[in-house]
Batch of 2 targets.
Target 1
Amino acid sequence: MEPRIIKALAEIVGRENVLTSPEELICYGYDATPGFSRLPEVVVRPGNKKEVSRVLALANREKIPVYTRGSGTNLSAGVVPMDGGIVLSTVRMNSILEIDPENFIAVVEPGVIVAELNAAVEKYGLIYPPDPGTVTTASMGGTVAENSGGLRGLKYGVTKHYVLGLEVVLADGQIAEFGGRTLRSPGYDMVMLFTGSEGTLGVITKIIVRLVPAPTHRKSMIAVFHDLNGAGKSIADIIGHKIIPATLEIMDNYTIRTVESFVKLGLPVEAEAIILAEVDGDEATVAQDAAKMEKILRENGGQVRVATSAQERDQIWAARRAALPSLAKLRPSTFCEDATVPRSKVPDMVRRITEIAQKYDVQIGTFGHAGDGNLHPTLVSDLRNNTEMERVYQAMDEIFLTALELDGTLSGEHGIGLGKLKYMPAQFGEVGLDVMRAIKKALDPNGILNPGKLVGQLQ
Amino acid sequence: MEPRIIKALAEIVGRENVLTSPEELICYGYDATPGFSRLPEVVVRPGNKKEVSRVLALANREKIPVYTRGSGTNLSAGVVPMDGGIVLSTVRMNSILEIDPENFIAVVEPGVIVAELNAAVEKYGLIYPPDPGTVTTASMGGTVAENSGGLRGLKYGVTKHYVLGLEVVLADGQIAEFGGRTLRSPGYDMVMLFTGSEGTLGVITKIIVRLVPAPTHRKSMIAVFHDLNGAGKSIADIIGHKIIPATLEIMDNYTIRTVESFVKLGLPVEAEAIILAEVDGDEATVAQDAAKMEKILRENGGQVRVATSAQERDQIWAARRAALPSLAKLRPSTFCEDATVPRSKVPDMVRRITEIAQKYDVQIGTFGHAGDGNLHPTLVSDLRNNTEMERVYQAMDEIFLTALELDGTLSGEHGIGLGKLKYMPAQFGEVGLDVMRAIKKALDPNGILNPGKLVGQLQ
């Protein structure tokens, strides 16, 4: 990058917030997705919207790519600076600007960590429900840009259901505000357009979110199934009885065995599936729903253990939280995917993934959010082994196309980024993708914002 | 309109679905908004997406305006064909295509009436929550295009919170599908962009919506306040105690007097405000929340009556439902607006509206959804009286600018259309509005779809 650009950036954000040494840049050259990395030419850390605006105006004038980065936990190579250029880190914009308990609203800067927001609103008896697995690391800006999901999606929805307003800096440096403090805002829903746009349309500099009352009670249970069908039928029956658990998770045999070998929780390694569930709400509802759910799980052949203390509850969720770290320990390269299907197709999908693993001789553990069909087939492999990787990528292709075949979608929460770009035409067709590209072109005519991601390269 | 165009349209949709006689056209020349009317040149009633596609391809080639029309209940002149052209009625696309009780999903054509969908899903113990006042008349396509709200917004949200997928015909006749049967779909959120786009970006030909379990119990109550402050404090206290009623409505003194004079329900005509509320859910929660709510209402000076039978419940809601019809009977021209503020500002807003009515010597009754701040100041007047109308429009201006001043928004559910177009820069600024116009231009370069509405005329 030309020294005059570095100098101009330093004038905007201060010399101490411009990183150019290789040892600094290397931290910004990858995210949590294996197989994608590239060093940026420079990292800038603006402190406010005005600095963001000036950085973008400069980059737009000079046609330099800009990659906005929160905490870098992305799983679809969404923040890797594949064309070099500028990484714009939101780390310094990390203030909770306002908590408005009367209107159940919080206003935050993009660098606030999701768990920090939840900690801050707890004293008002409120929660911010979206809870991706990375909740203690991920930034609000990143989770909004990725429309992140989480364990409570079934009952509480995903990030988009909580974003009421956004302040964004556009590609040319202009600043706009959309939405606000009401449930609905007129005009085109730019708030929803920017939510999930993966940093390709603008830089989010302020976020207004909706909060909800914290549930006063909750009850967790774990059910072990020797037959996947019993687990599948349980999911259908629980929902069929109009019980909407906050969390309804599934783990397949491969995941169970892996977790048990690393964590020794006493999980039965021969089980075909485990369901982990939690209902929340007021005391009476929780008691009633938990009793019904336990009965359903047993009737479908599940061996059920209901947590009777906070410690037992923690133990149940420790098993679930151990899934990804345990799988990741098996082999050097972990691809945690999020192929998603309608809830009723979860057993089909789990079975199909197992068949795909056998067909391509690839190691796949599947766990995830059974209640909303958002599964995490996790392919463990070694990037250095070319012949294995060929099989891994073939298996991945087949997993995503199977999700589409089952009326599902390419991404339940991890985004498209670069990792899943090649499947986009299969979900949206060329017409649908062209519409998205027209939007990208309208808002970022020079294509400087996270170029090549989500909708691919523009003509 | 040239006869060759009429002929071409007849070839697409059949002669019987092309209306051209003045007595037919007159039905399509207005909506529920006073002060806006214009006859279309032709009305077409396509029966499926292919016919819609061919109509749009023709109109786009010939640069003829197309106004998509559901049931015409719009309150912001959103469907009035102000430039003549083609009205495209969705009345024939009126099938419920699928109900999927396992996944809580329904798939409908745009001409399905909202209440019909609810009637169809009832036997599965499910509801489609968005319930605008026009629920028995309004079409699904219209309510999606307007992102309609309703009485249950506080607890259940508005239309956008239930739309999972859309099939749309684009301005040039191409057909695209966005979203689907999962909670979240990747790529730009075109489903949310089309939801609330007021017919300016495409024609919706299929809608996939999310359903939720029907509450098994509900309890309604009415509380009379001699002091508006008591009503305002009650709203704050109810929410402050983390009670989220399905419905939490307010009526001001002017509305109370008007309703009482027409319907004779025994409402106290000297009361400054009435609150009407309903909690729903399972038996225990409803009992508990209703008891707490009754206590709060009494503590703040309310005289409370809790419905103990279905008949008493119906009576309470009859009062609420009578609000708009009663106000509309007072004078020839009724402007029912939807200026919306954060919940905590509702008492301020009601007071400011009363002051505005006095200042401009205009008759305004205010009622609406206190729980989500979506108020309906209803200005009753006579369009034929020019000097009165000048004052009415001045009052309207001040009401909307007051809503913005109180951190609110121009529209809680009725849309922008033409009626509120002039206030858009005050809410979004020229930068925000330019972004929306860039979107409009990208998707409808010839500006044929509902031209002049929502984002105004393009340069």
Target 2
Amino acid sequence: MSPSAVDVDVKGVTDTTALVAPDPTTINALAAWRIKGAVPTGTAALSNSDMFKSPACFTKPKAKRWDHIISNEAKARKPSTLKGAAEYLKRPGMISLGGGLPSSENFPFEEISMKIPSPPGFSEEETRVSGRTVTAHKHDIREGRSLFDLEVALNYGQATGFAQLLRFVTEHTEIVHTPPYADWQCCLTVGSTYSWDSALRVLCERGDYILTEEYSFASALETAQPLGIRAAAVGMDEQGLRADALDEVLTNWDSKARGARKPHLLYTVPSGQNPTGATQSAHRRAEVYKVCQKHDVYIVEDEPYYFLQMQPYKAGVPPPSSRDEFLKILLPSFLKLDVDGRVLRLDSFSKVLAPGSRVSWIVASEQLVERFTRHFECSVQNASGVAQIALFKLLDEEWGHAGYLDWLIHLRLSYTRRRDDMLHACEQYLPKEVTSWVAPTAGMFHWIEVAWRKHPGFAKGLSHAEIEESIFKASIDRGSLLCQGSWFRADTNIPEDKMFFRATYAAAPANKIQEAIKRFSDALRAEFAL
Amino acid sequence: MSPSAVDVDVKGVTDTTALVAPDPTTINALAAWRIKGAVPTGTAALSNSDMFKSPACFTKPKAKRWDHIISNEAKARKPSTLKGAAEYLKRPGMISLGGGLPSSENFPFEEISMKIPSPPGFSEEETRVSGRTVTAHKHDIREGRSLFDLEVALNYGQATGFAQLLRFVTEHTEIVHTPPYADWQCCLTVGSTYSWDSALRVLCERGDYILTEEYSFASALETAQPLGIRAAAVGMDEQGLRADALDEVLTNWDSKARGARKPHLLYTVPSGQNPTGATQSAHRRAEVYKVCQKHDVYIVEDEPYYFLQMQPYKAGVPPPSSRDEFLKILLPSFLKLDVDGRVLRLDSFSKVLAPGSRVSWIVASEQLVERFTRHFECSVQNASGVAQIALFKLLDEEWGHAGYLDWLIHLRLSYTRRRDDMLHACEQYLPKEVTSWVAPTAGMFHWIEVAWRKHPGFAKGLSHAEIEESIFKASIDRGSLLCQGSWFRADTNIPEDKMFFRATYAAAPANKIQEAIKRFSDALRAEFAL
């Protein structure tokens, strides 16, 4: 049934000398370890990242244990009895009347094809000309045409994800982040919002506080609040979360006044933070990690915008000259710094391929990924097999790691252009007397500060909230929608000193961005009587 | 952008007189109300089932309110601030720099095609000959080719599901179940296991008991247990859950002895129950509903096997002569009996199309579906758009309701053949001295009772568990895997009087089923020294 290891085709291998001297941090070395292991291709076959990690991983020290922060709910989860019985299926000749899996003859999809871009022709126009159509059939595995097919993808799968895609995601994680401990694992999920919901349930109890940026992703806060989990706001600067502010909150934590134990979990968006667009420098990340070590805080890094790190905001900077250079100029993730195994990375295809895939993954130490897997088994089970096989065909069979990195470079340049369009419009239109901003270096958000105390209403006693709402409405009336900064406040008990509006450059085309900023500018001029 | 109402093509309309005299319970009437409403086709457009229900629905009384059973977690959920801002997007000419939705130019799928069966040629062989290939392009909506496309499906969507598929599911629900109250709603989810996990979080508190069959779906129990929710076992007979036993448990509930309030939630699988294969008759369902009314118990009906209701187990029964006859011979769901709006129906494509779609839906009163929607917004967000558009192309654009019912009839006959193969094998091989069973009328499970007290070990003092394990192992040693009945016990504190093994006829081909039953039979003969 399962093609042998040597059938595995390794895309993107441009330097075969790497096969001799494997370096796990480069894609050229991939062939060396990939070729050693076959992919389990049976229906609902078990797999884990260890099958796909390079040998170098296993020489590193193991992660710390996190028993003291695992929730009562997560502690109580046991492996499924029925899934345990699957062990017996490995015996040769065993016939199973056990699991209630439908027969693939009753899946009404014989083939699924997709037309996808051929690197380097990534644009819609180029794809129309040079795009390739790839097809998944129902029985490609049996017929030796592929490692993955509809018979498997359309049936039930394991919570960790289908081995075929888990392999790609594991390799990608090693290439980009090279975690500095041995027993890290990936597990596919159904989107980072769900990963975060699960993280709260696996790592927190009702009544806990979590630490997060003073302006934080609204949905992340709204996910925590109904679970009885409150946010302790940590001060920010133009690099996002401040390590000194984090230390201060933790050092001065007053359990009695707060009515809660000292927080043990930091939620942070290190790159292109939502809503501020701020990006933590490499130095800042190391500082934050050190503070988390000092106070034994576990880190959840939510990194949808990691590959939306952009070119510097100045003319004439050439794009990365190679994939290796591209990888080198990326900021280190917390996972890359994670000597303790104290990081849960929420990774996602939503901002780099398509949100509608609803396929994402987490990376953490084996102990925690095992608890998350038990959690997923009794909730979402696994990400859609239709989406998983589409991503496998695209990423593994067609593009390979090299093609995917090329795509990410293409995306970097595309977002750089969008960001530049936004900043040019702001420079052209926004009244400098009352607005200021820092050019974003990652993500999809531009965070515009408004000097609200210069608003005529301020002298008349209008509140921060009233002035913010007035500006928002004035912009709406002129046909331009930006988000109010106050919508993103982690702790609404702390009075707001500054005022911000969030504008995204991800969606609208350049001329619309320009027009929307012009309208917002008109609204500001009217409001501030400029 | 959005095609007008009259562009909507109604598949499966064979009787145009129905357009004059609409009867909401038949598919022929569908055109009459479908044609009245356009489908919202914008990116992440809001929709709900009311847009797609027949006018007759709204003349019925409204559901009861369920404030008294909604959990603290669910009560605390608020509508998203950011999603609230989307209201402004309806204003003509508004440019949004609000939501962080990626631009579709960066989705690397230009087209997705699928080869699917053409009714009535549903088999794999027929599909190879007469199957049709249908294609979703990126901009079909803009270009007037379809109501749904990849630009929309691959972006973020609403938690309720994309309107295009929500419409089909709503119509299907009305055709099959015709809920007897006005304000029912459907909401797509990512599989019934997740719907159940959500139901526990929306409707229960830690420490609660739920009511369920004494042998119950193991994963459903494993989902409840880590949330601190225990199962109160209700006695069963060959029709599954006993109404009198349910009344007894509720009437004699001793809150002090149990350490929990009287249960307010029943979890039941009415058709082809897992693991017993039992199916509640129409009369039984009405009795159970009445007991639930008496004790104000809310019902969760988990119905993955509803359309695996089979032909009677006797030779020469002709298949349903028409779609109308097929609909008439289906047992009434609890939803169909639900005058109070006290039923949450968990519906799913897993057993009738493909589990790998990870697309399912719930039906309940508006009040509860609204709470579930808030829950999904902060967890899974929405089912995969890739799977949703594949199902839309198949079900709505190609098959229509008529074709889908034809498929379900095809499946009914296919499962009837499989069930018959299983029963023939059992009749041929199993030792009658120690085995007995009831022919299943729905689902994928055959529940075999073993007269364990006749086992030689019984006289020697071996326990129920030891004898069950011994038989299980003896069968494994002969290469046949069946599930132990005890794996499915709702309350392990109650001593087991009987002994069962569960065998599925869903997956293995006929000759393998025969061989596996033969091996199990050999194991029994050896164990019982027959």
